[in-house]
Design brief:
Blueprint (H helix, E strand, L loop, with lengths): L1 E5 L7 H15 L1 H14 L8 H6 L2 H13 L5 E5 L4 E2 L5 E2 L4 E5 H5 L18 H5 L19 H16 L2 E4 L10 E2 L5 E2 L3 E7 L3
Antiparallel strand pairs: 1-9, 2-5, 3-4, 6-9, 7-8
Helix pairs in contact: 1-4, 1-7
């Protein structure tokens, strides 16, 4: 049995921040952890490894879980862009060309018009049907278009591999019942005010 309580001040880059929240969400939501574990177990080879193809293409629920963690705890909170042409808003107001616009990603990620019950951690927010029903630009944690994050695909693969290998060996638990917006604080990246108290218990294999 191993106990891990990560210092939030050590998570100063996007990948460690996202990884920390992923582990905490698995520990809090035991039903979701079980679903991810079941998916991972089906794809494990005899020598305890995973085929790269399987990690990329055959773990849809794990991918939904990753994206839902990113939605609720997006490490980067704002993005700025310069508008190159006039944009008409819904209320007929116009954002003129050459205006610098700040987008608050965290606010957009909790928009009830985009996500049913946005305060609830639910990987089904990223089911195929749910994604197809939203605008392509509704999730901006990695940006969108030509200036989107170059490391988006790497981050997806890295975190899916990390979760797969951890869950095949450990069961995660925590005394934390939930993480709400009141538990978060802004810094270089978003962080948890209460840290990431997670207990790793070895699985019988």
């Amino acid at each position: 049995m191993h106990t891990c309580s990560l210092d939030p001040w050590t998570a100063i880059e996007t990948s460690p921040v996202n990884t920390s929240f992923m582990m905490l969400m698995l520990a809090i939501h035991q039903d979701i952890q079980q679903k991810v574990y079941d998916e991972v177990s089906k794809l494990e080879t005899d020598d305890g490894t995973f085929a790269a193809n399987d990690i990329i293409n055959n773990m849809p629920y794990l991918e939904q879980f990753f994206k839902e963690t990113l939605r609720m705890f997006s490490p980067v909170q704002v993005t700025t862009r310069r508008i190159h042409k006039d944009i008409m808003l819904k209320d007929n107001k116009i954002i003129p060309a050459n205006t610098f616009v700040i987008t608050f990603i965290h606010i957009a990620n909790y928009d009830p018009e985009l996500y049913k019950n946005p305060e609830k951690f639910d990987p089904e927010h990223f089911s195929k049907e749910a994604v197809e029903a939203r605008p392509k630009t509704s999730q901006l944690s990695f940006g969108y278009g030509a200036r989107s994050c170059l490391g988006a695909k790497y981050a997806m693969l890295f975190n899916k591999m990390l979760v797969a290998y951890i869950l095949r060996n450990y069961h995660l638990s925590t005394s934390v019942k939930e993480i709400t917006k009141e538990h978060l604080k802004g810094d270089l990246c978003i962080k948890s005010k209460i840290g990431y108290p997670i207990k790793f218990t070895s699985r019988s294999r």
